[in-house]
Amino acid sequence: MNLIIQKKSIPEFLELEKSVIDADKNLDQMFETWKILDNFFRQDFYEKDFIWRWTYFHLYVRLTWKIIDALSDEDLVRLTGRQVFMAIIQDIDVLDRLLWIWALNKANKNNLVSFYLKIKTVFLESEEVVGRLQENDVFLKNLVSEYILLQKRGGDSMEEAVFISKLKQIFFPAEIEARIYVDQDVAVGRFLELINFFQEMDDKKIWFVVDMFSDPEKYNKTENDTDVVSEDQLSAPVEVAKDSTPQSIAPAEIKSQIESQFPKNTNGEFENIEAVLSRLEELAAQYNDPRIAEMMYFDEQAGMFKWNI
Predict the structure, then answer these.
(1) Cα separation of 41 and 34, whole Å?
(2) Contacts 24+ apart (CB under 8 A), 103-106
(3) What does the pLDDT look like over 182-203, one tens digit per residue?
(4) In sequence order, what are the beta bridge partners of 297?
(5) Roughly how many angstroms between the first and final C-alpha of the chain, as a whole number?
């Protein structure tokens, strides 16, 4: 879509955003729109991000994480430090997406470790402005440092509760409720999970964790299995084709992934069905398979969304 960037109110921008999403039906179209936004935001880094964060930057982040498999490692490193917070409050499971990207790089352990350490550094040192507190800008890196210090100090549950309350106050200002699509507890949990992951995961562990994430069956074999994987085998270089972009995915695997990522209510329905449908659209674009977007349908008789597999 030929996007022209100009100042708009949030209600006006919501209409524009819907037209962009409706127009960009495939990965190539999304990438073209993303390039327009990337060229705009590539300069004036964090300052411009904050000014436009509930309009064009919000869309920029949304598209980035939709087309993430098409981006270079350099782009991902460049963008992670400035987009993580906004991705989280758009109900994107950032750690899950990063693990899938790292899994595509596991053929070369040295490259994977280097890639991981770059992402880790830009996250822990990010100057992304996540909000304001008492009229002062709050930077992501300061919240990260505060949480790490709390953990090292062995803060009690009361201290942690106070910190989480502070995060919610910063992350979810009342005036932008229309731009928040995620449960507050889920978003805060994912943010803290990222910090814990990067704190605990060093260059010696990351390859094994990524390999276990992408191929769990390898690690679930019993001692009686003839093809059980030894530690020596796991630490040996892995030779695979350089083009490791996923070509297809089984419907059952998609269902399992969705079921594990999105919570349900007591009636067995997804609490955030819009986020589920959006994720299915992303996977449809990622695997170039429109049938994925149709894996859920609304059953009018039952009055709820159901799986179509």
Answers:
(1) 10
(2) 103/210, 103/211, 103/213, 103/214, 104/69, 104/244, 104/245, 104/246, 105/73, 105/244, 106/207, 106/210, 106/211, 106/214, 106/238
(3) 899 999 999 999 999 999 999 9
(4) 306
(5) 33
Better-scored residue on pLDDT, 34 or 156: 34
Q: By the 8 A CB rule, do 10 and 176 touch? A: yes
Confidence of residue 157 (pLDDT cuts 50, 70, 90): confident
Percent of the chain residues past pLDDT 70, beyond the cut: 89
**CB atoms near residue 16 (< 10 Å):** 17
Q: What is the pLDDT of residues 18-61, one digit of tens each?
A: 888 888 777 788 889 999 999 999 876 677 888 898 899 999 99
For residue range 198-250, list pLDDT tens digits in order. 999 999 999 999 999 888 887 776 555 545 455 554 444 444 333 444 456 77
Reduce the secondary structure of the chain to three states and give it as a string.
CCCCCCCCCHHHHHHHHHHHHHHCCCHHHHHHHHHHHHHHHCCCHHHHHHHCCCCHHHHHHHHHHHCHHHCCHHHHHHHHHHHHHHHHCCCCCHHHHHHHHHHCCCCCHHHHHHHHHHHHHHHHCCCCEEEEECCEEEEHHHHHHHHHHHHHHCCCHHHHHHHHHHHHHHHCCHHHHHHCCCCHHHHHHHHHHHHHHHHHCCCCCHHHHHHHHHCHHHHCCCCCCCCCCCHHHHHCCCCCCCCCCCCCCCHHHHHHHHHHHCCECCCCCECCHHHHHHHHHHHHHHCCCHHHHHCEEEECCCCEEEECC
CA nearest to 144, candidates 81, 208, 210, 207: 81
Paired residues of 307 in beta bridges? 296
124: tokens are 């822990």
Residue 297 is encoded by which pair of tokens? Answer: 């349908």
